[in-house]
Design goal:
Chain lengths: 178, 178, 178, 178
């Protein structure tokens, strides 16, 4: 899988992706990593600290493009490993339907979700992780917050692009929005 | 928890439950136990063989009443342990919303789901189990079938009360209905 | 329908319902009435002003018990008509699964959702209404608020029993939580 | 909207779309048009007869690409009008999350859903239509079938690309899969 993914990524040059981004919506997956107790109740939400497309250093969830030829489940796992490391042990939900769909546009007036690079359609999942998570690649830090902390004004102010709203939908879906 | 549950069960006599059953709908939870691979894809469905309320020996999913004062998550775990044993290690979904709701009535004309004892409103969940499952209490056997086997005419014919339709909804929800 | 409903309600005396309430969880449906534009986007949320089980005059959504022998869809329509009048023209969703399930207990420590009378398991739906809504029976007033107004601290403070949290889950589900 | 859509479509040449299709997954929406009664229960499913990407004349649901800069709700309405005419009066669901996500690949071994032209990620919705539907553009005919008819072996045999499985998931989601 790793080899195949590298090939797929290598094959799409920066020029190619720029061309494509101006022509069609790009498919993304986003995962809200959570810790759950043995009743499936969310105890902690994992928020990444990282450089965002808009140039800020912000709190965000796991996010990444779905590659040509790649299954959604594979894209979820690959992007979780990219951001949380290969020992995170994600439990991908059985239901292929996302908990919500978010539409990012360069123009902030369209949906309230923004991405200066592209029009992206993002499938959002809440994903329990059972293993060891450590910042990898472009992730600077991972904070594990309670639902109340994650929805606090302070933490929401550290999120851009609409990630604060996306997180609320995920918390509501998981029955733990304060 | 075990003590409290026993107390709750002990406290409602057979006479009480008969009285209540003629007056209000009874809340049930049902769990479709599944084995999943490391991508969250369902590989096997666990079907119980057991005596059903209608007097038949039939294939069915995990099912049981929600007790007075009991959380839905607790009811799910208690009923899974009752039918699959205490080592099943169920992974209760984070989303409190069921994948479907099924309404059982004594009269088969109302919804197609029948229970001769009562009007029951049942919240249905697909629950991955990671541990060892063994028939316990009233369960005679557990068969682990592929999605195609579980939806075969032979297996569907062994299910009564509408459990074959319930199972199809669960398989559809899990993206593995043939 | 109306006659049958009255019979069903009349048949369960106050004494009966008190007995039952102490023995099993009671099934409820709750509907968040919304106005939608021709793209299905929520523009307004209908909040009732009424006397709550806890004795307060509070803002709340449509809520009511499911009767013995009654289908969930019938219970939704009956309770919407009870609170919004018979010209509300509700569009009941095709999916029988609720957007969330809320568990009410007399003790506020159990789930954060409270009902001093009983343990209730409530199936929550977002229901577009297209007709004329007017306060009926125990409803004192109906306010049609934008999503931002409905989630404001002022309006949230007027809700008790956990209705403010329930409303947030519904708004998140409808993609309009600010 | 009509003008803008034409511009968007006109702007992407056949050459452009061919280039893009070989590089990234393409976002689609699919709508299963249904007639519902006043309780929201599905009575009929609308199946189109049309030329499919694989060269067959087959039964299928409403389907189409999401354009660059286009909202999902707009894409749903535009594609429903394209296939059912402008008087169909679709009731787009409030929940932006699809009832399932289907992944089409040129290779039938990957997911069982096939599209010889491309890798497509399709968001599937069940959409009640209240108006007059008539075949338009590339649609040859529309048949309104009961759930039992739509899931019959004869009708399933007239569907290709995995549309028979997609339809089952939609029927299950709507609580009307036999």
């Amino acid at each position: 899988m790793a080899d195949q993914t590298e090939t797929q990524q290598g094959w799409l040059t920066e020029e190619d992706i720029a061309t494509v981004r101006g022509r069609v919506p790009i498919v993304y997956v986003e995962a809200v990593p959570v810790r759950v107790d043995d009743h499936g109740e969310v105890t902690r939400i994992g928020l990444l600290l990282r450089a965002m497309p808009d140039g800020t250093i912000s709190r965000s969830v796991v996010s990444g493009r779905v590659l040509f030829g790649e299954r959604l489940r594979d894209a979820l796992i690959r992007n979780i490993e990219k951001d949380l490391g290969s020992l995170a042990l994600p439990k991908i939900p059985v239901d292929p339907a996302p908990c919500t769909v978010v539409e990012y546009f360069p123009d902030s007036d369209v949906s309230g979700y923004t991405d200066p690079r592209q029009h992206a359609v993002s499938l959002v999942y809440v994903v329990p992780v059972e293993g060891i998570c450590e910042p990898s690649q472009i992730t600077l830090d991972i904070a594990w917050l309670t639902p109340t902390e994650a929805d606090s004004p302070e933490v929401r102010a550290e999120m851009t692009s609409g990630q604060d709203r996306l997180l609320r939908v995920a918390l509501a879906h998981a029955g733990c929005l304060p």
